[in-house]
Structures are given as C-alpha cells and as structure tokens.
Amino acid sequence: MSARRDGRQIHFMLLEMGAISHNNYGLWRHPDNQRRNFGDLAFWIEQARQLERGMFDAIFFADTLGISAGFGGAPDVALREGMHVPIHDPLTLIPAMAAVTKHLGFAATSSTTYEHPFSFARRMSSLDMLSGGRVGWNIVTSYLPGAAANFGIEPMPHETRYDRAQEYAEVAFKLWEQSWDEDAVRLDKEASMVSDPAKVHAINHEGTHFKVAGPHLMCPTPQRTPVIFQAGSSDRGREFAAKHAEGIFIGGYTEDILLSHVQDIRRIAAAAGRGHDEVRLFAEGNVVCAATDAEAEAKLADYMKLASADGYLAHRFGSGMDLSRYGHHEKIEDIVAAGGPGADHMARYPFPAGWTVGDIIEDAARLDRKRLFVCGGPEKCADEIERWSDTFDLDGFLMRGFLAPGTARDFADFVVPELQRRGRYRTQYEGTTLRENLFGAGHKRLPDSHPGAAYRRAPQGAE
Amino acid sequence: MSARRDGRQIHFMLLEMGAISHNNYGLWRHPDNQRRNFGDLAFWIEQARQLERGMFDAIFFADTLGISAGFGGAPDVALREGMHVPIHDPLTLIPAMAAVTKHLGFAATSSTTYEHPFSFARRMSSLDMLSGGRVGWNIVTSYLPGAAANFGIEPMPHETRYDRAQEYAEVAFKLWEQSWDEDAVRLDKEASMVSDPAKVHAINHEGTHFKVAGPHLMCPTPQRTPVIFQAGSSDRGREFAAKHAEGIFIGGYTEDILLSHVQDIRRIAAAAGRGHDEVRLFAEGNVVCAATDAEAEAKLADYMKLASADGYLAHRFGSGMDLSRYGHHEKIEDIVAAGGPGADHMARYPFPAGWTVGDIIEDAARLDRKRLFVCGGPEKCADEIERWSDTFDLDGFLMRGFLAPGTARDFADFVVPELQRRGRYRTQYEGTTLRENLFGAGHKRLPDSHPGAAYRRAPQGAE
C-alpha cells in the first residue's frame, strides 16, 4: 500500500440511474425514500438541488438498454426488484435539473454500440449548451445480450466493441473539436450573418465502422467535448480509459486489486503523456452519515431491514454468475474446478478461500460492502474518506445512494462541513462547467494532452 | 369550396425549431427577438410560459439531421441565415419546459430513417412520463441527402422509406401498447414487488427492417403512445398520415390544392374507420396581431424591413429547385420545358402562369405568404382565422413565429380573448395530456380505431 496523496481536494459524484432501484435493492420500500416518484420531474429537481447544496461535482447516470436476465436466467428478479427497469433515458432527466442549478454537473452513460455518433454528438452538444457546459459522457461499449437483442444485432466480440468505441470517439471528437471554429458564430446584424460559412467544416470521416460527412449541427458549446468518463475493468477497457477518460471509475474486489488498478491506470496515462492531475480516479463510495455515530448506526440498521439479497445478487452477478443454479453449501472453488454454469465468471472474482454460494449471498445482502463503506458521525465518515483517498491515490468517490434525496441531504449536512474543516473539500464551486469542477477554474476544454485535442484544426491565417 | 365547419373549437400549435432561424429569415436581427438566446434554457422556458398562457395545444418542434445545401448548391446560405443550423436536438428542449408548465404539449420530429425504434421508444416514454403525458411524435422519413451522408447511408428510395416508417411505427406501437399491462407496476411493499413479471411481455418483433425482442424498458405512461403527427405531401405520405396520424399538417401552394388535400385525407381516414373527430387537420398560420389594425401593420412593416429573401428561397426550395442558377427574368414554364436543373421540382409547384424567377424571389421575400396570413387587430385576425377554419374544414393552425417570445405573447394578448368571445377557443385546458388538448377530456390514450391500438394485448383472465 502506498500513500501519495495528502491534503488534496476530494471529489464526489452521486451514482444514479433513471430507475426505482439501482444499487441498494429493497430500499425503495423505505418510508423516507422518494424513488417511487422517479416519473416526476419534481423528484429529480429536488435531487439536483440537494446535490448542488452538497457541492457534488456531478450526478452520474448509469444506464442499460436491456433487462438483466442473469440471476435465475429470467428477467423476473430485475422486474420484481425494480432493478434498472422501468428506466428513463438518462438524457431526458438532465435539462430540468440543469434549469434549477448553476454548477452541478450531469454525466450520462451512452453506449457506442447502439447509438449513432452523429445524432449522439448533437444531443450532447445540445445539453452542454443548455446547461452552460455541465455535461459528461460515460463511454460504455455495452455487454448485456438482452440489449443486443433489442437492436436486432448479434453481441459483438469484446475486441470489436472496443475497436468500434475507439472509432466512435474519434468521430465525436471531430464533430466537437474540429467542425466549427471558435469564432464561427458571428451574430453580425450588419452583415446579416449568423454563422460564417468559411469557419464551419465538414469532417468527412470514413472509417471501418462509420462514415460521417458533417459539419456538426451544433456550434461550439462551453466545453465542446463533454467530460469523458470510463470504467473499464478488462485490460483493453483499462487501456481505453487511461488514454481517453478524464474521470475513471476503479473497481476491484479487494484492496490489493483496487490499488493495482489505480497504479496500472496512472502508469498507462502517464505513458500516454497525460499528467497526474489530468485524470481523476474515482472509487465507489458508500457513506451512511448522521450527527452521531449512534444515529448513523440506527439509520443503517433501518436500511438493512429492507435490503433484498436477490437484488444484490442479480445486480452483481447478472452478467453470467448464475448462483441460483447452486446450493448454498457448495464451495465456489469446487464449482470453478468443475466448470459448471457461470464458473468462468466466478473464477474472475477473488472470493476468499473456502467461500460458499451462501457466503456470497450473505455478503451481498449486507448492502454490497465491497468498496469504501463507512457508517458514522461526521468525524468517522471524514476519517474513512480521507484514508481511502490517501491510501489508494484516489481523487474521489462515486457515491451510492441509499435513500433519495436523503443520501444527498445527509452528505451536505454532515460530511461536507467536516471535510471542509479539514481543508479537503471545496467551500464554493471553482467555475461554471463540469470540467472545472473536476480540474479547477479555467479548465473548460479538453487539455492539449487529451487524444481528442489532436483533432483540432490548426489556427488559420487571414482568409 | 365547401364550408362544413361552424362554431367548432380552433386549435393552435406553435411551429418551432431548436435553431436561431426557422421560418422567418432575417428576423433574428429584430431588437425584440430573443432567438439569439436559443442556447439558454431561460429562453425556452419563457416561450413555454407564454404559450401556456395563450392555451396553445402544443409547441411543435421541426428538426433536421443535415444542413440544407440546395439554394446555391452549398450550405453557405443556411449557415449565414442560421437556417436550421446550429440546431438543438429537439428532445433536449422539452423537459425544462415541461417542468414549468402543466398543460402545454410538446411535439417533436424524429426520423424513422436515422434513429432506432427501441431507444427512440424509450426516450419518448421517458418524456411522456416526466411531462405527465404531454408529448407528441411527428413522424418523418427524412429527405435531405445531407442527412444521409451524416449517417453513412445512401439516400433510400421514397417507397423504401415509407415501408420502413410503417414497420418502425409498428415496433414502437408494440413497445408502447403491448409490452406492459396496465397494472404491471405494483409498488407492493408487502410482496417486495416493483413490477409483476407476469405482466411484462417481450414483443419479439421480427420484420424486414427491424428485429426487436423487448420488453419495453419503460412502464405505461399517461398516454402510452405519444400523439402521432404527420405531414405527408406525396400520395404515399398522405395515405400514411391519414391512417396513422392524429394531427396532420396540410400543405398546398394554392387554396384549391389545400382543399383537395383536406378532402383527400378526410376520405382516406374515414375509409380506414377513423372518425372525423379522431383526426385533427392543421394548416400553417401566420398571424401578426396587435391592439389595432394600424399597430399590427406597423409591426409587419417593421418585420419586412429585416426579411431576407435568400433565407426564404433556401428554405422553400432547398430540396431541389435551385433558382440561383437562373436569371431573374427567366420564365418558370420555359425552365420546366427545357428540363434544366431543378425543373422537375419547379414543375410540381403550380406557379401562376407567366411567373419568372424574379416573381418567385419577390414573393418569397414577402414573408412567404402562402398560407393563412393575416395582419390586424383582434377582430380582423379572428375573422380570417375563422374563415380559413370553416372554408377548408381545418381543426387548427400550426403558427409560424415572427419574434420569440413576442408572437406567442401577442397571440395570448390579442387573438385569444377575441376567439374566446366568439366561442371558438378554449377558456381553460380540457385535461392534463396533449391528446386531451386535441380531443377533449378523457382522451388520454389512442382511440380503438387507431392502427396502434390493434397491438394491444387482449385482457387476460385469472393467471
């Protein structure tokens, strides 16, 4: 373990999904949980207000384009638990939240497999413009077979998906960074000129997966390219993230793996010419906070009463580890050795030696404590947040919600003042854009070291 | 000419586009026009508030996925005029407007050629849910070669586009009407059940153009299927509209043609088993209104000073009638006879005998008065609106904006009270959904006579 961070600012985003249940299953039944109102704009507006009060960098929307059918082999668990279904298109949630906030960022997941880059790039530019430069894009390549079946295509091999993602990002960067000169929009009444045609350019992209003429349909927005997020856990995924993402989610089932992933990504990013402060690394965070340790413990006990093991298992193991096929007493290492259904998937998780199916289920039901998990008063929470940030060289945390908007409200009330007292948290937002939330005042655009910046046109002489 | 309507309610929608210029070119330069702020949510929020004050049925967003390159052969005119570029994705504009209104509907154009029906259907369901049932879908099949080039596909033949549109709508209807039973969402705390898996169904669509498994990712929304709009002007387009659309835009370069189109659509709709009151027909409306005729005339004169002939010509003839190739003195009939560039296109317009290129240009610059065009005080405007509605059997008008939000404000101030006095306009909204704005209280869902209703599952017995 190394501790190379000290005294740096810590960043927070709230992990969201446009659904009734996302990470903490069963908790929709809590009387203080407003998630059942996920269809009301008022619910989302209140979430945004609480998050901006807590000076979060962003609300971060995960997404899926198919119902998870892993655990038990059918979508029944997902539907019963409200696990990612019914679910909004995340982009539809952003504008009304942007209208009532001034600084909070809005990151949304969008797949390079199912949306076309030309229309997606316009949609993001539109949102970046309307929000005053506060959107981010979490690039995913999609993995659910159920999603592929909704688009009538065969699931693509892992490498093909990443090749396509690479070209997709290239098309998007060209549209965002290259197509419109900075001063293309003139609004010149005398000349009766909205935009100067000489300063708007086709991109004429012709690649393996896409052929896109352009020009982009939207003029330069405050950030041009939205802040790029990624969470690659495979080798190829980590490499893609280290090269392209400005915010990266680091997973890892153990602390050793987490640290090795952090170091791996820092190394690849540095080799690609990206500075340590040009990439923000986030780990998942679970914080149950109250005025005192005892009150926080009571809150957590209250949550635990409602936790649903089925939901946690379906979420964590939905993409292949079908535990429902096995008895609770069966040992994971025996299943892996025998090569039964889901064995490949189980082999990729470093479960403690001797664990049984029952151990995994029990562990999952304990609110999935696989990442930073702290329950306590302000000091205890701040201690643990600092320790994790410093120990693992993390820039921040992607917080899971227990109640909505309760988790955001508790964070603003109890965690923020203590972290501010310690000098580890902003006392006001640094700028007006999401990129400035992450990287400080003035950092509205992609840095020159980012691969997307390579697509910018060289400044032109007199024309 | 026939006059079969008398005393019926007249409906209005405002034709919009997420751009600086749409219908009336050059007017962005007017000091009272706020369109230059098209990138600010506050601009759209104020538009929505003024429209709801005037009790419009809806704000209706046109859209395009490519820059028009017709007039003059290059996109220069479009860029200079701000004609549909830069342009927002219309769906990004709706949520913030929905958050500040309670009744106003939001119709948006989306192409069946460039978006996949599975993700599009979710997006619309999401918006229908968040707006409380206030969205509509204007089905277009797209025509701009420039749009096809942005998606790397060859422009499709007209018939193929409509075949695809037909199947696209079928997929969408299955997702909206068939996939989730009305009582599928339970939110049953005792049973720990968000949705009942027995009441959520795959659609397993396998057609010529699409293969979509489902289930739909969103539960039933207030309208399920958004209100369907269409503006088909070809024979195939008119037939598609008469069968599928609940609101139809009727064009026609002369009054005779307009009337024949209305009669044609009424006849096809009736033959398809659709009642006269199940299809609302709209024509374009241009109304410059003020407290007195003289003040309105002064307003119009003020607009005319800023009107740009280039913009009107590029808009109207952008898809093929390249007038810039000809001298102002050349007669249209000579060009058509000689079969020069754009002649095919010109032949489809019934220009008055003897008209020259110059006549068309001059006519276009007079604010494109090809539809209902009235300038005056409340009485004069109401007279002409009533006359058009009654003469042509029209249910309402799709109003063009001159200034934003001035046109909507003037309408609420001057036109609405007079039409109400005459009993031709609502004094309050009838319900809470867009469909109820069009068809009256209680009409939240597609009527049984609509082809989309055929995809509903028969009610199930005890299971």
Automatic annotation (TrEMBL), chains A, B:
UniProt keyword annotations, A-Z: Flavoprotein, FMN, Monooxygenase, Oxidoreductase
Binding positions for FMN per the UniProt entry: 63, 109, 158, 162, 233-234
Disordered: region residues: 441-463
Residue ranges of every copy of the Luciferase-like domain listed in the record: 39-390
Species of the source: Acidisoma silvae
Protein name: LLM class flavin-dependent oxidoreductase
MF (Gene Ontology): monooxygenase activity; oxidoreductase activity, acting on paired donors, with incorporation or reduction of molecular oxygen
Similarity annotation: Belongs to the NtaA/SnaA/DszA monooxygenase family.
PANTHER family in UniProt: ALKANESULFONATE MONOOXYGENASE-RELATED, C2H2 FINGER DOMAIN TRANSCRIPTION FACTOR (EUROFUNG)-RELATED
Record flagged with keyword Flavoprotein: yes
UniProt xrefs under Pfam families: Bac_luciferase (PF00296)
Keyword Flavoprotein among UniProt keywords: yes
